[in-house]
Amino acid sequence: MEDRSSSKPTQTESSKSTESTKPTESTESTETTKKMSYEWVYASGAVWVPFDLQSQSNIEDVWKRAEATWIYVGSFRDKAYVNAPELYVHYLGNDLPIARRCL
What we know:
With 103 residues, this protein is α+β, with helices and mostly antiparallel strands. The chain is built from three helices and six strands. This is WWE domain-containing protein.
């Protein structure tokens, strides 16, 4: 058998590699900014109401693919039909206008 003990990194080597992979604060804030650069909302009377974060992400994906599909909407606690090309959500027999607004 081959002795592999010499190939194991020392504690200082492993801590160096861990330190180099940690993101900097500026990187983290940039990623957060990119993730939150838009907001999906639906019309409820004269008010625009934001979807929950998971639904916003799902609607964004559907919109980027220019599709229409059923997704679970946490705000409604049920599935709703999202038609991204025509910008509406069908829920409980109603077509609710949706919009993507930049933040």
